[in-house]
Input
Amino acid sequence: MRMKVADFMQRLHDSTLELLPAKLRKSCTARVRFVWFQVHFHTPKVHYEVWLTRKTDRIEIGLHFEGPQEFSYAWAAAFAEHMAEVQAECGPTLELEEWTQSWARIHETIPYDPPTEALADEIASRLAKLITVCQPIIEAERAGIPEPIEAPKSASKPRRWHRAAKR
Output
């Protein structure tokens, strides 16, 4: 039976967390925003995501590295050495790719079928497997990839407004 997208996403959230081992479930942060669901552990710059894209009629299931280029590409390089293992566990359709000029991802896409409980459960199973396989790799590699230092917002002083002098 077809579901509303909000209900589909909530089921995806609940089912994914239910399928994770207790240790991972207790240490993650998960959130749903309209047509995407994200799970992260130490930083949102490295997160797992399911993204419903009607524009392409695809659903993406992936692990995203979304920081400055050096950070994201360091994660991609670390995972390049583990992709055979990840694909053996999660399936050969997973790809590691440069996504933007500064972001990279490991992902697969499936057709955007009408949202149903069965589809939410299938995606939750795939995502939970990806997390279970990749999170130990992240933990092992994390010490070698420092968190990016955020640039301060603005170092300039606030602008002061003065009244024009009457002449």
Summary: Residues 152-167 have pLDDT under 50 and may be disordered. The longest strand covers residues 46-53. The CA atoms of residues 8 and 115 lie 6 Å apart. Helices lie at 5-19, 22-27, 69-80, 83-90, 117-141.
